[in-house]
Amino acid sequence: DGYYTYNDSAKKGRFYLKDANGDRILVYQTYVSRYDSETEFSTLGLRKGDGIVVEGVRAEYNSVAQMSYAYVISTTDNTPELPVSKISDVMALDLTAELDPVKVQGTVMAIAKKGYIIGDETGLIYVYINKQADLAVGNKVTIEATPTSHYGTPQLADILDLVVDSDSEETPAHGTPLDLTTLENMNAFSALADNGILTVQYVKVKGTFDEGYKVLQPEGSDYAVQLYNAIGSFTDYNGAVVTIEGYYYNYYSDSKTICLMPVSIVAEPYVSAAVKNVDVQFSFNVSELSWRQFV
Q: C-alpha angle 131/82/116, rounded to 5°?
């Protein structure tokens, strides 16, 4: 019997309980009830501060007491309604600290296999859920989640509540991308990523595409751009010089890799021809053959 303080939005709940004496214990592998192992724990809609009664097995990890294989007996809503925060206000928080959940509203701008980008009139932020969202680009959503950061980039995680306010799938306005097609701009942007001071941004990059790793390598740059957890097949672009517009949302310093959620990809043609003194350019591909193999 204690207070709900953390949930990982999986079928099995994982959270901390704090009782009236202030003693804290980790509870993991928790089901919504004794006889239900399929319903996702997140459907209970619990938030930090809510009361919960669970029953389970005492366990230990590194000599620290825990509870596992538990199930929920009852819950109590103890938390007030959260006010809606602007995305810019969330990004201004100290994301290195342990923060309380926030509520934000925005439009889904792009979707990947483990999360999505939302935006409001003040900014953009990545929502991490470790699975593909059952959403569409253009949906208007309200999210309650915990602000945090990954390699310095702000994000929302540990989703407590998601409401689709509008099922509109109208393509949102992405705006003018930050141009990273020049080596100078690419290196300057990458230096900011190295220092962990970047936020989600709409960018444009250019380079040779490697479908095997979904990586674009800008000419002359030590940094690579990866379509990390991107949805779809990109075989047709293998070996081609492509220009990609999409959302920067993560960075891995050890491999100098910038993670991009693509919105559009345009390949440069390999062949040009002149017909009656008029320059004509065209591009083509053959099934099962990469661009390089064909050329």
A: 25
- Among 9-13, 25-29, 172-176, 271-275, whose mean pLDDT is lowest? 271-275
> How many C-beta atoms lie closer than 10 Å to residue 77's C-beta?
11
List, as one string, the DSSP characters of 46-60: --TT-EEEEEEEEEE
pTM exceeding 0.70: yes
* pLDDT tens-place string over residues 157-199: 988 888 998 878 888 999 999 999 888 998 888 888 877 778 8
State how far the Cα of 80 lies from the Cα of 112, in Å rounded to an integer. 32
Q: Which residues contact 176 (CB under 8 A, 6 or more apart)?
A: 202
The DSSP bridge pattern shows strands 102-112 and 115-120 to be antiparallel
Rounded CA-CA distance 11/221 in Å is: 42
Which H helix or E strand runs over 87? helix 87-91
For the record, the structure tokens of 4 come out as 């709900």
At 282, phi and psi to the nearest 5?
-150, 160
Write down the H helix ranges in 92-231: 183-194
